[in-house]
Write a structure and sequence with these properties.
The structure is a homodimer of 199-residue chains.
Chain A (H helix, E strand, L loop, with lengths): L8 H15 L5 H8 L3 H7 L3 H25 L4 H18 L1 H7 L4 H7 L5 H5 L3 H14 L9 H23 L6 H18 L1
Helix pairs in contact in A: 1-2, 1-4, 1-6, 4-5, 4-6, 5-6, 5-9, 5-10, 5-11, 9-10, 10-11
The structure holds a DNA duplex (30 and 30 nucleotides).
Amino acid sequence: MGRPAKFTDDQLLDAAREVVAVHGVTATVAQVSAASGATTGSVYHRFRSREELLVRLWLRSIERLHERLFEVEAEHDDPGEALVALAVETARYSREHPAEARAMTLYRHERLVHTAPQVLHDRVVHLNDGVFAMLGRLAAQRFPTAADDPHLVRRVFTCVIGLCYGLIRPYIVAATPIPVWLDDVIARAVAAALTTIDQ
Amino acid sequence: MGRPAKFTDDQLLDAAREVVAVHGVTATVAQVSAASGATTGSVYHRFRSREELLVRLWLRSIERLHERLFEVEAEHDDPGEALVALAVETARYSREHPAEARAMTLYRHERLVHTAPQVLHDRVVHLNDGVFAMLGRLAAQRFPTAADDPHLVRRVFTCVIGLCYGLIRPYIVAATPIPVWLDDVIARAVAAALTTIDQ
DNA sequence: CTCTAACTAGAACATCGCCTCTAGATCAAG
DNA sequence: CTTGATCTAGAGGCGATGTTCTAGTTAGAG
């Protein structure tokens, strides 16, 4: 075997996360290497490009949020309550982990499906599969009459995750604390938004 | 006097708007000059920097939306209905003018307050004054008991403009049509969000 | 007509940041 | 100990892009 690694992938991603928390998507490889203690050469030994590094960071941050969301689903019996709880939990999680949340804002899923590095393409494509399946389950329970709407999951996603994310995003990007009163706004707004699917 | 101008400022801004609609914030001066027919030298004769050009475009797009919003206020007697109508109108306007809407997403107001070019600083700082005054008027009517809350206007702004913008932003950035069903989602969500201010 | 302010023109310059390249260090296996 | 795969190291190539520079053009004023 060869020499053991001095830095783990996660260590480099952690460094990138802190740089991104300050500089956003314009974070440079030089900044990441400075923050991690590795040199640019070492960074490029692990990641084929700056893009791959940042996309990996983005993927990791979103997957971590998703784990939380799955736990939230398990804690609720009522599908309507669960949907609202998913949105509120997204806000809470982002408030508690601002740097992780900032990493989530690096890209948009739809764009990356077309532009992500080859190696990550499949991971990007299937990133939301689990959450969409969960939303499909909850939606089928909550809106039995709309079960045949092919866009049902997409609409539910917009009313729950999209609505919440849109409200908290400005705070995340500005590195400003997400106000606690926003949780209540999100809960009521999501519940009301979902009523558009009823009729 | 000297030679008359071959391009007006608005012509150059229009060209920049079309480039931004495709390339977003990474639009280059070369792309703008190509789209307008002017050379980079001419562009720099009008605008001191790329930043000033793009900030001017951003300001123009937001001021144009604001004009619409003032008209909407005048069309409504009930303050609650007016607040909801403001949000829905923002979505409609963005749907009808996707390139203008894309220009609105170039910057965030809070960041520009600190980083905008000297010449534009005042214009940036007072950009929202009119809208905030309008929201203050409507909020004072709609929430008479909360009139002493120093953050009232900020909260109303979040519940109306912030909520709407958060929902439509993904479509604007992706250059995807804003679904019509979103108008209904926005109307109900805004109305519900505003109820958090009542108690 | 001549003068001149204002503008056009686009080549040239400077900077910045991604990425590569070659050399050297390290440590497990044999 | 020797070997060799793997990693560290950081200087430098290279392309892209913001900005400047100098020359030339235009059209109104006197």
